[in-house]
Specification:
Structural class: alpha+beta
Signal peptide: 1-20
Mean pLDDT: 85
Largest sheet: 4 strands, mixed
Protein name: Intein
Radius of gyration: 21 Å
Distance between the termini: 59 Å
Keywords: Signal
Strand order of the largest sheet: 1-4-3-2
Number of domains: 1
Strand content: 5-15%
Number of strands: 4
Length: 151
């Protein structure tokens, strides 16, 4: 009987050991600017991507709305590099569109910094690393900084 309980006790011990670890949750430090209302441009970006689901998926979800504001205001940097060969990054044309809510979403034909909607693309927004994407046929790059990075 004791021999039959030994594997069970061992399994129980290891499961308690593994699941009992103190898992530190990565906290996101939001700057104060996420408390400001959405700009017309930010609202237009969200509406373009989420269409008729924008209210339920974004506007009525305070946490996700805060994440989107943080993303658009603090974590995306678009910059021009006069020597783009020194930079590495995935081509924007190789990143799929985020068209789950808007099947008519189209890629930008001409890249314009002021009109670019990063929400249209499945960029690595919520990963732990910082990612850089090259805008095809330009000297522009899009850098997405991790939400867990301290600002």
């Amino acid at each position: 009987m004791k021999l039959k309980l030994l594997p069970l006790a061992t399994l129980l011990f290891f499961s308690i050991f593994l699941f009992g670890q103190d898992s530190k949750k990565n906290e996101i430090n939001y700057p104060d600017n996420v408390n400001a209302p959405l700009s017309k441009n930010e609202r237009a970006m969200i509406d373009e991507v989420y269409k008729d689901q924008a209210d339920s998926k974004v506007y009525n979800n305070a946490t996700f709305l805060k994440d989107i504001k943080h993303l658009l205001r603090n974590r995306i940097l678009i910059y021009k590099d006069e020597n783009p060969k020194t930079q590495k990054g995935k081509q924007l044309s190789q990143v799929p569109l985020f068209d789950s809510y808007n099947k008519n979403l189209k890629r930008d034909v001409d890249f314009k910094v002021n009109n670019f909607n990063p929400l249209k693309y499945q960029l690595d927004f919520f990963s732990k690393g910082t990612y850089v994407y090259k805008v095809d046929n330009t000297n522009y790059f899009i850098q997405v900084t991790s939400q867990y990075r301290k600002l």
